[in-house]
Amino acid sequence: MLTDLLHIEHLKTAFKTDGGEVVSVDDVGFRLKTGETIGIVGESGCGKSVTSLSVMRLLGKSGYVKEGEIWFNGQDLTKFTEDEYRRIRGNEISMIFQEPMTSLNPVFTIGYQMQEGITLHLGLKGKKARDYAVEMLKKVGIPRAESIMNEYPHALSGGMRQRVMIAMALSCKPKLLIADEPTTALDVTIQAQILELMKSLRDESGTAIMLITHDLGVIAEMADKVIVMYAGQVVEEADVFTLFDNPRHPYTQGLMKSIPHVDSDPDERLTSIQGTVPSLLAMPKGCRFNNRCQYAEERCRQEQPLLVTVGEGHSVRCWLAE
Amino acid sequence: MFVYIVRRILISIPVLLGITIVNFLIINMAPGSPVDMMVDPNISAEQLELRKEQLGLNDPLWMQYLTWMGNLLQGNLGYSLSSFEPVSTLIGERIGPTVALMGASIVVGVLIAVPFGIISATRQYSKWDYLMTTGSFLGISIPNFFLGLGLIYIFALKNPWLPSGGMTTLGTEGGIVDTLYHMVLPVFVLAIGIAGKKIRYVRASMLEILGQDYLRTARAKGLREFVVTNRHALRNALIPIITVVGMEIPLLLGGAVITEQIFQWPGIGQLTMQSIMSRDYPTMMALNLLAAVMVLFSNLVMDILYSVADPRIKYN
Q1: How many residue pairs from chains A and B have C-beta atoms closer than 8 A?
Q2: Closest CA to A254 of A286, A220, A292
Q3: What sections of the sequence does the record tag as coiled-coil (chain B) (predicted)?
Q4: B220 to A152: CB separation less than 8 angstroms, yes or no
């Protein structure tokens, strides 16, 4: 049996603001095995990105992990010092971001930016580092890899830059790759290519992937299991087939209904979930989804539901699911 | 790039021509004449008039200008109306001290401003930030003459640690060490002023960069915060910094009029002051021309440096 590569338990991440402390991720937990892909879905502002940045401890000056444990490869990362963390970042855990256009430093060549991490973590220098970087660029399907090394990011298209980001992220053979909306900013055809690339690299290297997206299509394509987040909490967790076949949480059901299907009637209106995610400063009492939920009852407005198991690897945070 | 530079130099010729015309008009429109400054009660009005005639000061302005320009094109800057030495000799004698003084001040000022500005930006709203911004505010606000006089009072008059002015100790041969010793106070005064202004710019331009996505990428690679700030961020913040540092380059030859006067520094600034006081038109014109050339030259240097600092900027 495979042991868990990443095991997050009761993660609570907060930010210091002028208006006091704001908890943006509350009691999030999941397990991820080597080679597995977990998808994290939800609307903007649900805490998906903050969860991933918590794992990387890249929350900026005001953010911090308040409670919970992040077990990675048998070690609790929340106990790590900054120095220890730096040895893991870009090495055992690496990350690619949503905005390929702004994620590369405009004043350094692709080669320089590639070699930086390679030199730092793999100890390769000079020509060896360069050759390795070229090899990585070729692996992610970049034509003219040799000459691209001397180019600056502005000379590359968005898709190419995201390939460079992926090459950079995978160059130290990470055990875990965190992809924060890796295809959101790209054209649809490029999206498909990038997803295809990530899949093949995953199958080749056995890297586990934490995939953050609001696109259920991407989830269906890539993920083994899914967690659905709403207002900083996990509201449903299931393997990908169960989730699509039998979504139990009204929010997940709402998300499913809001995407068009190939076989749906072209004249049919897509349903949308009314309202927006509540502000972190003004969370509703009871279930956090109650003000947008069409099934909400009195109990939902009073008591907060817990995440309960409803099936094999399937848990839901809803009073009605019981 | 070469074509670009040549083109820029060609464009600067009409600009310089315009500057000299405007300068010439303004200088000549000012009341008084060089001859008035030579006034000795024993000289009769006829003799003064004769002198004016000899110096060509009674010619129409356009003719005076063309004479001056004609001489300039032959490489002749004219003669000083107060010391009667060639203007080029006067400037030549003073350019060395000024370059030394201003060069040292700009370097010291920038060396203070860049690290302080970075500290201020990376620790925004901390007590370090407040310390730096307050210090920069003081540096900008205190006039050079006031700070200069204050320092002379403390370090030269009350405690005879440093010389109060000049470039060499009187009655000695001087030498590099002696000159450096004389430079301490004026360089300090000028550097404080320069650093005060630059800290603000460095801070502002670093703050703009510090929130960029690519710094998160750099951190995600596992780079040290020191490398992230001083390599990835600073390199991007350089463009505005180059601009404001470049604006100081004309001072390298133009000197600091007031500070040089206070410290009796035998530089261009002092010469400027003297030539104005004695209505020494040819010297004033030459100094103005020198300043104009330096401004245009430093603009060109800055534009070239931009393309070095930022690969997205290309000139054709």
Answers
A1: 69
A2: A292
A3: none
A4: no
Query: Given this model, what pLDDT does residue A1 score?
Result: 41
Contacts within 8 Å (CB) and 24+ apart, A310-315:
A310/A248, A311/A238, A311/A242, A312/A242, A313/A225, A313/A237, A313/A238, A313/A239, A313/A242, A314/A236, A314/A237, A314/A238, A314/A239, A314/A242, A314/A243, A314/A246, A314/A248, A315/A236, A315/A237, A315/A238
Contacts of A154 in chain B (CB under 8 A): 311-312
Q: Is residue B187 part of a domain?
A: yes
B228 part of a folded domain:
yes
* Total-model pTM: 0.84
pLDDT by residue (tens digit) across B261-313?
A: 999 999 999 999 999 888 888 999 999 999 999 999 999 999 999 888 888 88
Supply the range of the domain harboring residue B135. 94-258
Percent of chain B scoring above 90 in pLDDT: 65
ipTM of the complex: 0.88
The residue of B124, B125, B209, B221 whose CB has the most chain A CBs within 10 angstroms, and thus the best one to mutate to test that interface, is: B221
Determine the pLDDT at residue A13.
94
Do the chains contact at A117 and B221, CB–CB below 8 Å?
yes
HSE-CB of B41 using CA atoms within 13 angstroms: 0
> Which chain B residues touch A117 with a CB distance below 8 Å?
221-222
Whether residue A125 lies within 8 A of chain B, CB to CB, comes out as no
Asked if the A4-92+174-316 domain carries CATH number 3.40.50.300, the reply is yes
Among A99, A107, A121, beta carbon nearest to B311: A107
Cα–Cα distances in Å, from A157 out to A55, A89, A124, A142, A186? Answer: 29, 26, 28, 11, 10
Q: What is the pLDDT of residue B223?
A: 94
* Residue with tokens 């001072």, as numbered in its chain: B251
Would you say residue B55 has pLDDT above 90?
A: no
A55 contacts chain B (CB < 8 A): no
Cβ distance of A99 and B312 shorter than 8 Å: no
CB neighbour list of residue B119: distance below 8 Å, 6 or more residues apart: B128, B129, B132
What is the CATH number for B199?
Answer: 1.10.3720.10
- B7 in reach of chain A (CB within 8 A): no
Distance from CA of B235 to the nearest CA of A (A): 7
| Mean pLDDT, chain A cut into blocks of 10 residues (322 residues total) | 81 89 90 93 88 92 91 92 93 92 94 95 93 93 92 93 92 93 86 89 90 90 93 93 92 87 76 82 86 88 90 90 73
What is the count of structural domains for chain B? Answer: 1
In A56-115, the residues whose Cβ lies within 8 Å of chain B are: 56, 58, 86-91, 94-95, 97, 99, 102-109
